[in-house]
Amino acid sequence: MFRESIKVLDCSIRDGGLLNKHKFSFDFVQKVYRTLAAAGVDYMEAGYKNSDQMFSREEFGPWKFCDDDLLWKMKESVEKGPKISVMADIGRADMSKIKPRSESPYDMVRVALLCARHRQVHSNGKRVQRLWLRNHHKYHGGKPRQRA
C-alpha cells in the first residue's frame, strides 16, 4: 500500500564510499542520481560533509566532503531528481560549513554521532534546525544514557 508519508532514502553512494574511500567518479554518481530519479526515489544521500582538516582530500574522494558546487552540478543535471541528503558526523564535520537551506544544494542533513559525543549533538542539531534543514539524528554505539 502506498503511503505519502513514507519517504525512500538511498544511501548507496555514501555507504559504498566506505569501500573505495569515496572515490566514485562524478559521471558514475550522476548516473546513479538519474536512475534514482527515474525510479521515483525521494532522497539520495550523496556522502559526507566531513572536514578537510581531519581527512586528506588526496586520500579521500569528493563524496567524503560533498562540496556544494559538486552537489549543485549534480542536482542541476536532472530536472526532477531526488532531494539530496548528506551525513554530518559530529566531531568529523565542520558544522560551520553547513549553510542555510535556501543557500544549499542539500535538502536534509543526517547528523550522526558516537554515543560518547551525545552532548555535542544537541547544540549542533539545534544549529542545523535553525538553518531550516531537515535533520535526522543517527546514534552509533547504542542509545545515549538517560540522566537520573
Binned strand content: 15-25%
Shape: globular
CATH architectural label: Alpha-Beta Barrel
The CATH homologous superfamily is termed Aldolase class I
Q: Give the termini separation.
A: 42 Å
Query: How many strand elements?
Result: 5
Largest sheet: 5 strands, parallel
Order of helices and strands: EHHEHEEHE
Number of domains: 1
| Helix fraction by DSSP (H/I, runs of at least 4) | 25-40%
CATH domain class? Alpha Beta
Tally of separate helices? 4
Gyration radius, in Å? 15 Å
Description:
The chain is of the alpha/beta class. The chain has a single domain (9-139), classed as Aldolase class I (TIM Barrel). The protein contains 4 helices and 5 strands, in the order E-H-H-E-H-E-E-H-E. The protein has a 5-stranded parallel sheet with strand order 1-2-3-4-5. The longest helix has 14 residues, at 26-39. It is globular and about 40 Å long. It starts with 8 loop residues before the first strand and ends in an 8-residue tail after the last strand.
